[in-house]
Design brief:
196 residues, transferase, 1-acylglycerol-3-phosphate O-acyltransferase activity, alpha/beta, 37% helix, Plipid/glycerol_acylTrfase
Length: 196
């Protein structure tokens, strides 16, 4: 008997590892005296495929903070830069369901993995800028949402004093062209930023 996953399966998410990663990443926040407040969680659909799109990626903690604020039963699998998947850290975040992407090329393997997460009725986490630091939105998030027939829930993170404010927006339905959907996502991020 083999434990190999089928070639067309979504990246494996081990629930124990997922919860270990999410709960362990609370520690650095506690040590810094920081807390996390989630606004708009009720806007997140309880079930079904979903893309969680982070509008501003400023910290290595962003994916973990988003994961901490999702409703019970909603586990997010992030597409993350391949450099994070080396050594023990890579094994841990892989066990948590995340998967690598080579940002220097059109990584078809990562795109397939993202679509498999959605086809399995999972939650895909992605930062549409493609990196930290306020870049222009890339069209990949819209493309994945359209191909995967998944709504996009925009999320905006803001650190005010010692409080992380995680603000979720209304889900955006996957309709129109990649460009149109990217523009709607960008407008949703602007609206969330204005509320921060």
């Amino acid at each position: 008997m083999t434990d190999a996953k089928p070639a067309n399966a979504a990246p494996r998410l081990i629930p124990f590892m997922y919860h270990l990663v999410v709960n362990t990443t609370r520690l650095p926040l506690l040590l810094r005296g920081q807390r996390v407040v989630a606004l708009g969680r009720e806007l997140i659909p309880a079930t079904g495929r979903l893309v969680i799109a982070g509008g501003n990626h400023t910290s290595n903690m962003d994916p973990f903070i988003i994961a901490q604020t999702l409703p019970e039963g909603r586990r997010v699998q992030f597409m993350a830069k391949k450099e994070l998947f080396k050594g023990p850290v890579g094994w841990i975040i892989s066990g948590g369901g995340s998967f690598p992407v080579d940002r220097k090329k059109n990584d078809l393997g990562a795109i397939r993995n993202a679509l498999r997460v959605l086809q399995a009725e999972g939650t895909l986490g992605i930062f549409p800028e493609g990196t930290r630091g306020g870049q222009e939105l890339q069209g990949g998030t819209a493309l994945l949402a359209l191909k995967g027939k998944a709504p996009i829930t925009p999320v905006w993170l803001n650190l005010k004093g010692r409080t992380w404010i995680v603000r979720f927006g209304e889900p955006i339905q996957p309709t129109g062209s990649v460009r149109e959907l990217t523009e709607r996502l960008d407008a949703a991020f602007d609206a969330l930023d204005a509320q921060s």
